[in-house]
């Protein structure tokens, strides 16, 4: 009897896990049919709130979004609630809402409806709230989903129509890209990948970006700065008419650098001359870019050192000394200097705006 009692007392008290889930029955904010004009980069986040589920134990909440006619069987987007899913509210940015509107089929510069509900889950069991609300979302210009990279391809480009060789843009911000390159008669498009089935874009009227399509180039081959802002579906095409080596002591452009392809300008076998002033040799220089807008109106941009004044460089000077930055048109400020040992010798002068390097730069190398 004692043995039987001992065996019986060792048995564990087990019970089945209760996975019953009670659906959310009340959505409190935003109000049904609330309307928002989205400003993805500057607009404040919006809070979605609801009454708690009556389910016992811990549950997780997600806000589910669907098209106006959807039934949430396949939501277009889901957002975990605040507090890693335990709070009865979700704080959602206008950038995310812009993406949701796009997924719901709302075009840029258009207004459309999106439904939202709350999914409550416990273990593997999940239920959608018994009610759903709609919100009206007005989208700005631009693309809601911004690519991490952008490339240029087509018969008008330096690499032709082989998309695997497409020219990469330099990413300068979220959805913002630029590329210095030449364009010849033909056509080109922008793609977000060089493999698979990439999304494509085209520049319209030199000012805007549209999904799909291509852009036609006519006339002569020229060098351009192509600036793209996908967040605002905007494009700016600027012709680089010339790049001049500006000598500060003489206050003039000594020579212009021919464009050699691959986002670079270079003049070879030129004599490196450092003017001699009453105070000694003065090798200060920067670059004068003459540019033209789409209408052909010309203006000047100056590029030089990040420092207003510099010491003479040597063979051990770091590469960052030669990094190019937009500067003012002053005669002597923000200039680079030539290595004094190069005076009177033959060398190559190069300006490199290739997108793959850490920073736009310039160099003087002896032959």
Basic shape: elongated
Main beta sheet: strand number and arrangement? 8 strands, antiparallel
Instruction: Give the termini distance in whole angstroms.
Output: 105 Å
Report the C-alpha radius of gyration, rounded: 31 Å
Strand content: 35-45%
Stretches where pLDDT is under 50 for at least 5 consecutive residues are: none
Mean pLDDT: 93
What oligomeric arrangement do these chains adopt? single chain
Number of helical elements: 2
How are the secondary structure elements laid out?
Elements: H1 2-9, E1 27-29, E2 34-37, E3 46-50, E4 60-67, E5 77-80, E6 89-92, H2 94-103, E7 111-122, E8 125-128, E9 133-138, E10 151-153, E11 167-168, E12 170-173, E13 176-183, E14 186-191, E15 200-204, E16 208-211, E17 215-217, E18 222-229, E19 234-247, E20 252-256, E21 259-261, E22 264-271, E23 276-277, E24 280-281, E25 285-292, E26 298-304, E27 325-327, E28 346-352, E29 361-366
Parallel strand pairs: 2-9
Antiparallel strand pairs: 1-3, 3-6, 4-5, 4-7, 7-8, 7-9, 10-11, 10-14, 12-13, 13-18, 14-15, 14-17, 15-16, 18-19, 19-20, 19-25, 21-22, 22-28, 23-24, 25-26, 26-27, 28-29
Task: Briefly characterize the structure.
With 367 residues, the chain is mainly beta. It is 5% helix and 43% strand. The strands form six sheets. Strands 12, 13, 18, 19, 20, 25, 26 and 27 form an eight-stranded antiparallel β-sheet that branches. Strands 2, 4, 5, 7, 8 and 9 form a six-stranded mixed β-sheet that branches. Strands 10, 11, 14, 15, 16 and 17 form a six-stranded antiparallel β-sheet that branches.
């Amino acid at each position: 009897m004692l043995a039987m009692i001992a065996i019986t007392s060792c048995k564990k008290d087990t019970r089945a896990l209760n996975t019953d889930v009670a659906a959310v029955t009340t959505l409190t904010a935003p109000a049904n049919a609330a309307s928002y004009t989205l400003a993805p980069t500057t607009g404040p986040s919006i809070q979605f709130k609801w009454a708690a589920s009556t389910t016992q134990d811990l549950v997780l909440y997600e806000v589910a979004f669907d098209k106006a006619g959807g039934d949430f069987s396949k939501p277009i987007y889901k957002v975990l609630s605040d507090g890693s899913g335990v709070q009865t509210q979700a704080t959602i940015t206008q950038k995310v809402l812009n993406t949701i509107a796009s997924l719901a089929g709302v075009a840029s510069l258009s207004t459309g409806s999106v439904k939202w509900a709350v999914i409550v889950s416990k273990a593997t069991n999940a239920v959608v709230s018994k009610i759903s609300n709609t919100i009206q979302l007005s989208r700005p210009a631009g693309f809601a989903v911004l690519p991490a990279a952008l490339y240029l391809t087509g018969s008008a480009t330096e690499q032709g129509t082989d998309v695997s060789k497409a020219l990469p843009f330099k990413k300068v911000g979220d959805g913002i890209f630029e590329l210095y390159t030449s364009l010849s008669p033909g056509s080109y498009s922008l793609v977000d990948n060089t493999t698979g089935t990439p999304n494509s874009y085209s520049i319209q009227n030199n000012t805007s970006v549209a999904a799909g399509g291509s852009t036609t180039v006519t006339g002569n081959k020229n060098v351009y700065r192509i600036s793209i802002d996908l967040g605002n579906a905007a494009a700016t095409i600027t012709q680089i008419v010339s790049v001049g080596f500006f000598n500060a002591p003489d206050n003039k452009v000594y020579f212009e650098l021919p464009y050699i392809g691959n986002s670079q300008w270079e003049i070879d076998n030129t004599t490196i001359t450092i003017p001699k002033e009453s105070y000694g040799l003065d090798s200060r220089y920067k670059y004068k870019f003459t540019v033209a807008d789409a209408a052909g109106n010309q203006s000047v941009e100056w590029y030089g050192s990040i420092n207003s004044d510099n010491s003479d460089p040597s063979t051990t000077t770091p590469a960052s000394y030669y990094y190019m930055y937009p500067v003012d048109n002053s005669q002597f400020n923000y200039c680079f200097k030539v290595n004094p040992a190069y005076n009177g010798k033959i060398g190559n002068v190069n300006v490199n705006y290739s997108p793959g390097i850490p920073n736009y730069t310039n160099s003087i190398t002896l032959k």
